[in-house]
What we know:
This protein has helices at residues 44-62, 66-70, 84-91, 105-113, 154-169, 177-185, 190-197, 202-206, 209-217, 221-240, 255-261, 264-267, 277-290, and strands at residues 7-13, 18-24, 29-35, 73-78, 100-103, 119-124, 128-134, 137-142, 248-251. The protein is of the alpha/beta class. It has 2 domains: 7-115 and 274-290, ATPase, nucleotide binding domain (Nucleotidyltransferase, domain 5); 154-267, Nucleotidyltransferase, domain 5, CATH 3.30.420.40. Helix 3 (84-91) links the parallel strand 4 and strand 5.
Amino acid sequence: MNTVTPYYIGIDGGGTSCRARIADANGLILGEGKAGSANVFQNHELAWQSVQDAIALANQQAALSQQALQDSHIVAGLAGAEVTSCATQFKALIHGFPNFQLLTDAQIACLGAHGGQEGAIFIIGTGAIGISYRNGQWQQVGGWGFPLDDMGSGAWLGQQAVRAAINQHDSLITNSLLADMIWQHFDHLPESLISWSQHASSGNYGEFAPLVLNAFNQHDPVAVEIVQQQVTLLSRQIDALHIDGHPLCLMGGLADWVTTQLPERLQKIITSSQGDALSGALQFAKKRNQA
């Protein structure tokens, strides 16, 4: 009897790019490729094209036959896949790959962080989102986007800093180093701040996050209060993941900072990431095939 050698493809796609990695049954990486945007919420048709392009580029190195490529077990973690209607539209486009499973980019990041095993991650950068994988079930906390959510994120920190500046202008708080730094950015002109706020994105607010940390390190009471609120918000969200003894990995640009501020009970379960999102997708694909 001839035994067909299984191949695995992991895909990690977001608003900027889509990466694909092909591996054999032993975990040997055979090829990698990178294509354009693959956010299914923004454009599910473009996302599908980018997935195909990334796979094709990876296969330029792997050199699998067309049949072997189509028979590969694929797990794709794509931004926006948590929106059911968008995921459904994307899945309707899939053809030529019968063993294709769609997850979110956060889910495969969680799998990669814990070597394909159960655990949780909390990503804290400009935004904030928590994902846990326990007893074969996924749970998400946050990730609803700014300004509705992203509580405790870099964007949230910047937003609180701007609010502090406004409060200082209205004499609602005493003089603050943090508020002074914000006003310096806007040349001490309220109209400049208001004009900026009409078009400011989460990334624009997130640019002020380092000012909060700077002022905190200089013991500015307003910054200290903001950081205390941040820690409370993040701790509450992490607790809502119901980790129950599973390991937790913090990721994102503010992860190292937040780790030093969290309660000791949470610091004790924080572990280092074991791998990237693509490794998580590949491990999940192999695990499903062997189940």
